[in-house]
């Protein structure tokens, strides 16, 4: 009987933890995306992201880097691509949290320094194993996954299918039709939805080479 109640308590505790994962809705010019944030796995990263969400920072920014079968990235530039919003400084990289860059996950973009992420994020379109943490080396530290899309993966795929080219300071990968983040809002607490794993190919061809840095530069 003691074992039964102990097991029941463990299940209820786990359920409560899951129910309290915050969710945000990202309203874009291509449709809305709902993201569940894993604050238990990436507390610093989630707190940082929600800080920018609650301050309205992402309103009016665009997805400035779109690479089919790889990533959709945004979180810093305006539509004209001539102004990058100021940020509040970098945060520590939590890529060692056990989460991996699978289809539909959201992760932080950073430059060569693993601890240089600020506001930019990206959605993984495929299983990008080369972006995971492998060892404590700048080239292999990885990108921190801190959440997953629970609704709107079709919107992200639609963005990924847009025609891209040069724009502003970038020589390629900028959508010809700007995809604007109109608003990002924190949603009321809700029970998590059990989702099927999104289908995707494994992008691990360069697993043993330094991975691409995702900072929009």
Number of helices: 3
Shape: globular
CATH class: Mainly Beta
The amount of beta strand, in percent, is 15-25%
CATH structural architecture: Beta Barrel
> How many discrete structural domains?
1
As laid out across the biggest beta sheet, the strand order is 3-4-6-5-7-2-1-10
Overall pLDDT score: 86
**Rg for CA atoms:** 18 Å
Q: What characterizes the major β-sheet? A: 8 strands, antiparallel
User: What is the helical fraction, as a range of percent?
Assistant: 10-25%
Say which CATH homologous superfamily is assigned: Cyclophilin-like
* CATH fold node name: Cyclophilin
Structural class: alpha+beta
Order of helices and strands: HEEHEEEEEHEEE
Care to count the β-strands?
Answer: 10
- End-to-end separation in angstroms reads 59 Å
Detailed description of the structure:
- It is a single chain.
- Mean pLDDT is 86; it is low at 1-18, 191-199 and 205-211.
- The longest helix has 18 residues, at 2-19.
- The relative contact order is 0.24.
- β1 and β2 (31-37) form a beta hairpin.
- It contains three helices and ten strands, in the order αββαβββββαβββ.
- The protein has 217 residues and is α+β, with helices and mostly antiparallel strands.
- The protein has one domain: Cyclophilin (Beta Barrel).
- The strands form two sheets. Strands 3-4-6-5-7-2-1-10 form an eight-stranded antiparallel β-sheet. The chain has a two-stranded antiparallel sheet with strand order 8-9.
- Helices cover 18% and strands 24% of the residues.
